[in-house]
Design a protein that fits this description.
single chain, 216 residues, mainly alpha, 3 domains, three-stranded antiparallel β-sheet, two-stranded parallel sheet, 11 helices, 7% strand
Length: 216
């Protein structure tokens, strides 16, 4: 068994990263063709939210069994709100507000956790967070802006994501493009149809992708 944790570290060495990943892929192919190699098991842990990983995703496309960190369920969000001592979420109106937050960020673990933390610190109010796009942009700006370098390096991803944003019913994307956007957490796939992961992404990127184009 070979276990590689935090594969992203190798992206610091661009001279060898492609050869190394191709080596891993060749080992995987050997397990399908050679009986002796079938004893090999590889566990590879890597982030998909770094600009450098996009080029490497093609080497892992359709290989092995993929596991992703799941989004929070509604029940988990309720439990997490209590761990943050947000007792108001147990009232009727509070549950509705928490449900609206859950819908806004689609159960994304980081986005949920940050919102609950700021609410617990009383840095923001739930009313402002839900109704004010400026507040949403301010608290999530650093995270959301991290996608722009990816779009700049890979314009086809931005073009495809803009199609998804503009089409609430979802669109059919090229398989590798859909795979990359899904790995970035920007879309969810219903069969072959791509839809934006959460309303927050639609609100933020519909405005800021246009601004990004104007700058370029």
């Amino acid at each position: 068994v070979i276990s590689l944790n935090n594969l992203a570290r190798i992206f610091k060495y661009p001279d060898i990263v492609e050869d190394f990943i191709l080596l891993l892929r060749s080992w995987y192919e050997q397990t399908r063709q050679n009986q002796l190699w079938q004893k090999l098991r590889m566990i590879i842990v890597y982030t998909t939210e770094l600009p450098q990983t996009i080029n490497s995703q093609q080497f892992f496309f359709n290989l092995g069994v993929k596991f992703q960190i799941p989004y929070f369920t509604w029940e988990q969000v309720q439990q997490l709100s209590l761990k943050h001592q947000l007792t108001w979420t147990q009232t009727i109106s509070g549950k509705k507000q928490l449900a609206a937050l859950f819908k806004l960020v689609g159960g994304h673990p980081y986005l949920i956790r940050k919102a609950l933390y700021l609410l617990a610190c009383q840095t923001i109010t739930i009313e402002k967070l839900l109704k004010d796009p400026t507040t949403q942009a301010r608290i999530y700006q650093e995270y959301l802006n991290g996608f722009f370098p990816i779009f700049q390096q890979h314009p086809y991803l931005q073009k495809a994501f803009e199609q998804v944003i503009a089409t609430p019913a979802g669109v059919l994307l090229e398989s590798i493009t859909a795979y990359q956007l899904e790995n970035l957490g920007l879309i969810k796939l219903q069969g072959n149809i791509a839809q934006v992961s959460c309303p927050l992404y639609r609100i933020y990127f519909a405005q800021h992708l246009a601004k990004n184009k104007d700058k370029n």
